[in-house]
Amino acid sequence: EVQLQASGGGLVQTGGSLRLSCAGSGFTFEDYDIVWFRQAPGKEREGVSCFSKSDGATHYTNSVKGRFTISADDAKNTVHLQMNSLSPEDTGVYYCAAGRRRPDGAPASRGWWKSGWYNYWGQGTQVTVSS
Fold this sequence. Notes:
Elements: E1 3-7, E2 10-13, E3 18-25, E4 32-39, E5 46-52, E6 57-60, E7 68-73, E8 78-83, E9 92-100, E10 120-121, E11 125-130
């Protein structure tokens, strides 16, 4: 059974940091691209960052570049999202998702931010940044 377990959310003040973790099981980690999405109240879900295990490539949405860092812990089949310099605009439920890497490089190189690529989803973890 494929499972993704997201954790690490919480309440933090503006300028603070959080580290999210997404632990995967039941699938071959190296064959998948792992993505963090977030959804703020009243807004659509948006792709935040993508890690492609096959080549180590990372991708970020523009609003988090320079503040967030995605990385993988191979031994634990876990992808982390280090979030620094948080602002209230980062508030939302953060979800991790896994999509099987395709021969044409999708999803990482074919619109990784599109939620339709991903077969498996974690349960979400709440991030709240107070002003």
